[in-house]
Design a protein that fits this description.
69 residues, 88% helix
Length: 69
């Protein structure tokens, strides 16, 4: 190419490398965010299940106290 120099080519390579690096960093950040969201959802589900179990146990105890089988 006319007017294209070795320096231009090296700059282009460096620009591509930086873009790739930035893309990889963004992908890693997105993956970390997704993992954190999944962990939060799992924790929330565990809390809901624990609340449900507690509620059922309380009902059972109440029924026993009331003499209902």
């Amino acid at each position: 190419m006319e007017g294209w120099s070795y320096e231009d080519e090296e700059n282009e390579k460096e620009t591509k490398r930086r873009r790739q690096e930035t893309n990889e960093e963004e992908e890693e950040e997105e993956e970390e965010e997704e993992e954190e969201e999944e962990e939060e959802e799992e924790e929330e589900e565990e809390e809901r299940l624990a609340s449900l179990v507690t509620f059922v146990l309380q009902l059972e105890n109440q029924r026993k106290r009331d003499g209902v089988s």
